[in-house]
Amino acid sequence: MTASRPPELPAIIDIEASGFGAGSYPIEVGYYLPGGEMYCSLIRPEPGWTHWDSGAEKVHGVSREILQQHGKPAAEVAGHLNQKFRGQTLYSDAWGADYAWLGRLYDAVDLVPSFRLKDLREILGDCEMTNWHATRAAVELRLQLRRHRASGDARTLFETFAETRKRCRPDWNI
Q: Which domain of life is it from (predicted)?
């Protein structure tokens, strides 16, 4: 039996939330794919989603009012993810939190994800782990993204992965 080969370039997902810990829920989902496709959607809070952390709002800059006005229904966002990623694997740098928030999203609309969510660290080697933080700082400086939002964070993670992979494996081709 052979282990499955990690992807050359992973599909990255990021989730922003109403806060941290018990009661928090997803407010935005974003992804960045090999080839450059990006997606970002605010999520309108479900009726039972009431937890709000002003500290988290200061980080992502999204108010409950903005979510009510511009957020998509949870069922629409979950349906989009299921259709787009059926049978695929998405990677996250905050697997524990993102897994819980995806669970909250899917539970609210009585659906099951059609894809797998894995920790990005599963596909990083020692060299990539060692160089991760310095490379990410350089990527952030280069991209100059002004807002802390899900799709921008996913893009930053993707480009950090690609650059650390190139640095650590010079023979690697994208």
A: Bacteria
CA atoms within 13 A on the CB side of 151: 8
Structural domains in the chain (count)? 1
Q: Which amino acid is at 10?
A: P
In a domain, 87, yes or no: yes
Please tell me the pTM assigned to this model. Answer: 0.91
pLDDT band at 147 (very low <50, low <70, confident <90, very high): confident
With 60 as the cut, is the pLDDT of residue 6 above it? no
User: Residue 65 and residue 29: Cα distance in Å, rounded?
Assistant: 17
Residue 4 lies in a domain: no
Q: What share of the chain is helix, strand, coil (3-state, %, to 5)?
A: 45, 15, 35
26-32: strand order across its sheet? 38-42, 26-32, 11-17, 89-92, 116-119
Task: Confirm if 51 and 23 have CB atoms less than 8 A apart.
Answer: yes
Partnered with residue 17 across adjacent β-strands are 26
Tell me, yes or no, whether 6 lies in a domain. no
Q: Which domain holds residue 117?
A: 11-168
Beta 89-92 vs 38-42: how paired, if at all?
A: unpaired
